[in-house]
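Recall the central idea of this unit: under ordinary conditions, the amino acid sequence of a chain determines the structure it adopts. In this exercise we apply that idea directly, starting from the sequence alone.
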Amino acid sequence: MALSGEKFYSARITERCDISPDLWKIKLDPCGKFDFVAGQYATLGVPDGDRLIERAYSIVSSPYEPQIEIFFELVPQGALTPELYQLRVGDEVSMRKIPKGRFTLDLKSGQKNHLLLSTVTGIAPFISYTRTLYRDWKENNMPADLHLYMINAASRSIEFGYREEIEQIAAEVPWLTYVPSISRPWEDTEWRGETGRVEDLIRKYSDLWGLSGDNTTGYLCGHPQMIELGLGILKRRGFPNQSLKQEVYWVPAKTPGA
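Accordingly, the structure predicted from this sequence is:
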């Protein structure tokens, strides 16, 4: 049984969807009030003897949704994902009552363009942005004049957990452009889309879309190597530090990861 009390909810898994052998997503009923902003993360945990193993995971769902959706990648030697991987609908995990994180959409700088770069599960906060803006757009309540340009890379197309959803929204709205890319096309011979890692595509699409440090905020989320290389490319292209935001996965527990 997951912990509960002053700081924790005992959140119940209501849905589970396996994407590939090492990727899956779940929906959680927090069983209590959980107010967050698109781009923040939830801290989940499972008990291990007399201690609690916790990690932070970016929230996929929009604040408008009643349940909390999380997209996981199994890290075989990770402290928590192997435990979470075993859980099924009806099982419970601890969830801290307070969301955290500052990887939210930049609405203060006045930049119209937002370049969203991610690897596999790193797309999670960008889905939260997109779902939230889509609801606002449908209700004629967009918070600003903006455009999201999203590049999400994976090894194979099976690892895209939200491609159909994003493509459907991008086909309907004027403010979303989406490019999925795979880095191992020889393992996915039916793929007809873009190929290459995120860092291979930044220059090409920044030029194509007319994105620069003068008119764009850049966001990088996912694998630490992609973020390191991507930041270097964007900085060399004139993006100032204040126009760059990052959320690194698979490193210390203070940031979303395994």
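The two ends are 21 Å apart (CA to CA).
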